[in-house]
Amino acid sequence: MMNEKIKAEITKIEAIPFGIPIKRFADAYAEFNKSNAVLVKIYADDGTVGIGEACAFEPEFYGETLESIYFSIQKYIAPKIIGQNPLNINNVLSIVDATLAKSTCAKEGIDLALFDLVGKLLKVPVYILLGGCFRDKIPVACEISINEPDIMIEEAKELLRMGVKTIKIKCSQNIDEDVKRVKAVYEAIGDEVALRLDPNTHWDVYGTVKAMKKLMEVNCHIQFLEQPIPSWDVDGMNRIRELIDVPLMADEGIWTPQDVIEFNEHKAVDIVNIKISKTGGLLMAKKVEVVSEAMGLHCVVGTELEPAISLAAKIHFAASIKNLPFACEYTELYYLKESLLKPKIEIEDGYVRVPKGIGFGVDIDEQVLMRNTVRL
């Protein structure tokens, strides 16, 4: 009888490509002026709609574009899961995994829409589906783009005025210039904020050790260093960890729970950066988090400058994590020029609050979506 009461069926899936303008942002991969994504709507037979988002921010890293994500969802995934019961999240996502290898961004869109839909059907927030809420607000960390030192300093000061106490400095392939930029920012703001560094795999072992020693010589405190070398070089990460006195975070190298185990076995990581675009959504993100906790590793929820629903999803996910001693990354709230969400999510004295309400607790401003929809 209980099963009959909560039975549901997926009747329709809609994918809408869009892009929200952002302030200039550059990392070691490329330079960006827009946060691209595909909005995903999953309809249930009672008219309830779950909303998800598949981010297409960095095809240079993920290998997925607006076009590939859109067609992956519409042509391959949707036909396989229409008619399924969305309440069976594990089963539906198993079908998705069997339909397409990798494609984590496309899978993210389906995963998030499912969680939002199920939350609405059961009339609970998504964090309840993830095990419950450990906190009602999350401390914010923001990245600052590779730029001229004076611009980076001004952005850091602006974030400081917003109450942000953790800043991650993006680095490039030019290690000497990176060191100069980091020193300039540190000298301008001192120990008022915790600094993180992220070369996005574009350094090497020798250069990393050299750079960190130069920064230590001027007492530049670094909270942790993120994935300085290529993701496949686990042994190199181990060597760096042994040679520097700064905690090492793995990002590009960790997509699955198995990756966490490998990095931990090689003693190549202190902190795990979990991004729901890498994991293909919340279900796998939760598995990565649980395995990290079992290994005694701390976690950070990372950013891909998510423009809308993925931002709300990251907050629900962070709220559900017990092992979360560091600020999580919501860089998009600083760089996005327009909000697609109703109500808006904003930084309040250095924190973001967990949205109230069922599902993700947010809706889409359809006028903003229409204005920023991309024709393929």
Provide a descriptive summary of the structure in words.
By secondary structure, the protein is α/β, with parallel strands linked by helices. The protein has 2 domains: 2-123, Enolase-like, N-terminal domain (Enolase-like, domain 1, 2-Layer Sandwich), CATH 3.30.390; 128-364, Enolase-like C-terminal domain (TIM Barrel, Alpha-Beta Barrel), CATH 3.20.20. The chain has helices at 2-5, 59-62, 66-81, 89-99, 104-122, 126-129, 149-161, 175-189, 205-217, 234-243, 257-265, 276-279, 282-294, 309-319, 332-335, 366-372; strands at residues 10-26, 31-44, 49-55, 137-144, 166-170, 194-198, 222-226, 248-250, 271-274, 298-301, 328-329, 341-342, 351-353, 363-364. The strands form 3 sheets. Strands 4, 5, 6, 7, 8, 9, 10, 11 and 13 form a 9-stranded mixed β-sheet that branches. Strands 1-2-3 form a 3-stranded antiparallel β-sheet. Strand 2 and strand 3 (49-55) form a beta hairpin. The longest helix has 19 residues, at 104-122. The N and C termini lie far apart (46 Å).
List keywords for this structure.
9-stranded mixed β-sheet, alpha/beta, globular, 14 strands, 16 helices, 376 residues, Enolase-like, domain 1, TIM Barrel, single chain
CATH superfamily of the largest domain: Enolase-like C-terminal domain
Mean pLDDT level: 97
Q: Mind describing the biggest β-sheet?
A: 9 strands, mixed
Q: Which percent band covers the strand fraction?
A: 15-25%
Order of SSEs? HEEEHHHHHEHEHEHEHEHEHHEHEHEEEH
The CATH topology of the largest domain corresponds to TIM Barrel
How big is the Rg? Answer: 20 Å
**Which structural class do you get from the secondary structure elements?**
alpha/beta
Please give the share of residues in helix: 40-55%
| Gross CATH architecture of the largest domain | Alpha-Beta Barrel
User: How many independent structural domains?
Assistant: 2
Regions with little confidence, pLDDT below 50 for 5+ residues: none
The CATH class of the largest domain is Alpha Beta
Strands, total number: 14
How far apart the termini lie comes to: 46 Å
What shape does the CA trace take?
globular
The number of helical elements comes to: 16
